[in-house]
Fold this sequence. Notes:
Elements: H1 5-33, H2 37-63, H3 67-81, H4 91-108, H5 116-125, H6 138-144, E1 145-146, E2 153-157, H7 164-170, E3 175-181, H8 184-191, E4 196-199, E5 206-207, E6 212-217, E7 223-224, E8 227-228, H9 229-237, E9 241-252, H10 258-267, E10 268-275, H11 278-284, E11 286-293, H12 300-311, E12 327-328, E13 339-340, H13 346-355, H14 379-388, E14 393-395, E15 401-419, E16 425-444, E17 447-451
Parallel strand pairs: 1-12, 2-3, 2-6, 3-4, 6-9
Antiparallel strand pairs: 5-13, 7-8, 9-11, 10-11, 14-15, 15-16, 16-17
Helix pairs in contact: 1-2, 1-4, 2-3, 6-7, 10-12
Amino acid sequence: MENTFALEQLRAKRLELFAAVTEMNLQHEKLCEKYSQKCHDRLERLCSQAFFAMRGIQLCLEELDQSRLALYSSRLGESLAMFQVNLRDYSKLNQTMSAFDQMLTPFVQENDQVNAAVIGRMMNRVKLGFYPTAPDHIPPMKNALVFPSDTTVNLLDPCCGCGDALFSLAEGKNALTFGAELDKARAERAICKLNRVAIGSYYFSRISANAFHVLFLNPPYLTVNGARAEKRFLANSYRHLLMGGILLYIIPYYRLDLELCSFLSTHFTDLQIYRFRDAEFKKFRQVLVIGRRKPAAEDPEEAKNLLTYACAPELIPPIDRLPEGSYEIPQIPKAVTLFRGEEFNEQELAEELAKAGSILQKQSGLDGGDKRPPLPLTISQIGLIGGSGLINGLIDCDTPHIIKGRIIKSQTTEKEALMTAKDEAYGEHVRETHSSKMIFNLLTADGFQTLT
């Protein structure tokens, strides 16, 4: 059975957990023999590592739809957070961890003998990673934003799909919409709704940095080359935001691991998290993370706060509680000077050429009719015209015929012996001549003819 990212992560986090617990026992033995502050501090750090590994296990179990086991791992995590490393007896800790390991065994076996129902439920939710944002969840996000009245703002969606979400977010506002979409069929539909659409992979698109006031990001929920697309899209696209620009980031809550929470808290401030409404949340477990871009600065406390919500989804408030007007969009005029997709956008080119009247000059009436050269064509001129293919096809005249011109390249080689004064050969001089010959093939009523 094909490995899934959640199972691979579960195996990795399990190894981290039990490596930390094993080392805790070794350090505990040393501490019991002789107290050492260094040994005590080492125990504290190992306990913290075990706690975060347990949090990672909980998130993986959530994705695998193992809610009861995830809840149990959450409680174990709380116990680790309060664990007193100075205890004389670690037997209860070891018994609990051993029992928990037995519970994880069906999921971490290397032969992948995993409950097929678990994988089935996961795959039923997957549509090649494409989860369009539910339309009824856009109004709360829109109401939370304060659009400036006298400044045109730029909105970017790097995974715009058909463009519905971004169009709804900007509708009725002084805003320009920009989207990128990998799927060509969806991109063509988005072109009808958004101001600009980059067709093809976002990663091969060229888009201005620090030029957008709002980044709406609902990335694919899948693994590409061992990396989660949710993290990769955020890490690559946040740079398009102005300082103070607003991030609207939609992902499954169980994807908010420590690495992602740390990234968010480093680059964004005023972070809040809201879950989607019950029906939608049960299907896709989606949450909205909203924040404002700031200069890069680590904030471990904010990262831990986000991670707490990720591990306790029942604490996440519903999106309807997102306060109206809580995020003011920067009143900074900014032009998007670079926006090109991976694929050539013919429709955009046609629209731009239509606006550029100086490029497409109107044809003069003198240029519209057939013309004859003032003098007969020379052989060389006939050869150039024939080689270009301009006279290929049916010639409608008194003796109709079909003509096809082609150029044949040829090479001739001449060799001349090199002789000394005593008429002794010491080499040869080779001369190669390359030439092109024009040939016309004609099909007439009398048969096939070739002219050279």
